[in-house]
Design a protein that fits this description.
Lipocalin; eight-stranded antiparallel β-barrel; 2 domains; single chain
Length: about 190
């Protein structure tokens, strides 16, 4: 009888592992790691205490495995997101290393500035410096990349897609609900 119970236990634990592995197909790496860790932890926990309360040890193992699996998978998600955040050299051309000053904006902004200057760095960061009428300076940083004739500007809070073109020393940007013309500074 004990032998039959042991076989049923092993089959149940194996089923948990297979279910966790198959259920993780469309998940993030963190979720996939948690599912696989839970299955592996349940298997190890259940096999470690076959003579006693295998269910309790399997459950404990599943909890510990899920936690560890999630931590490992979540780090993979972070690395992948960071890698996607970096633009390639091709995605930065032709703006990389250039500085532009806004000469007109339509519709006219509610708050006027003495000057608005944007620098597009080689690392995919666009730094815009606005000098207010009272002399106060505001600086914003955005990630940028270019896909075809689309300039993509983003922060953790938003993503803005705009059509752009360069004609001589002028940069024309069309946001759909507005537009800007910038003059090349360097």
């Amino acid at each position: 009888m004990k032998r039959g119970k042991r076989l049923v236990s092993i089959i149940c634990i194996f089923g948990m592992v297979v279910t966790a592995a198959l259920g993780a197909g469309c998940a993030t790496e963190g979720q996939r790691g948690a599912a696989l860790g839970a299955g592996a932890g349940a298997l190890i926990g259940g096999l470690a205490n076959m003579h006693g309360s295998w269910g309790a040890t399997a459950l404990l193992g599943a909890g510990v495995g899920a936690g560890i699996g999630y931590l490992i998978g979540n780090e993979e998600d972070k690395k992948a997101a960071e890698k996607r955040g970096r633009a390639t050299e091709e995605e930065l051309r032709p703006l990389a290393g250039t500085t532009w000053q806004v000469i007109s904006i339509v519709p006219k902004p509610k708050k006027s500035h003495k000057s608005v200057v944007s620098y597009f760095s080689h690392d995919g960061t666009a730094v815009t410096t606005k000098t207010n009428m009272d002399g106060k300076v505001e600086t914003t940083r955005e990630r940028y990349r270019i896909v075809g004739s689309t300039l993509i500007l983003s922060t953790p809070d938003y993503v803005e897609n705009a059509k752009f073109r360069i004609e001589g020393d002028k940069l024309f940007i069309d946001y759909g609900n507005g537009s800007a013309v910038l003059q090349r500074v360097s």
